[in-house]
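task queued by scheduler; priority normal; single chain, no ligands, no partner chains; default sampling; output format set to structure tokens
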Amino acid sequence: MTVLSPMRETYFPQFLEQLAADYASENVRSGRWPQENALTRSQSELMRLLPQGTATPDNYLFEIKTDPDGQTAGYIWFAVSERQGERSTFIYEVSVFSEFRRQGHARAAFLQLEGKVRELGLKSIGLNVFYHNSAAQALYTSLGYAPTNLTMVKTLKTS
């Protein structure tokens, strides 16, 4: 049974390293960032968002465990924010490691996350998904998430 377990302080450096690499790669792949300095840019962004690590206020970091005493199958990070007087949740990252994919861990983690968000008195959860990640889009749609906007870019060729 999949469970969300508060991220251990000892696990946080591994999480941060993997997340920085993944975020840089996704931004390069999507065309948002150039390859050069992508990792540095990603690391800077994460340090800005999590200046106090796991103790950063209004940020919630969890390991996705295969069971209460089981292996770490991935992680999920969400934050509480306020926009136009309304508090809501934004999922910054969810990742299930390749050897644990297609076993229902992501779906179970999202359903448990909903309970945690309700406990905080919040009524909505937002997230960003890269356009090329059709598997994640399918999961989110099946869980009731709906697009609210679409950012489009046209890359111009130089002559």
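post-processing summary
- The longest helix spans residues 12-29.
- The first strand starts at residue 3 and ends at 6.
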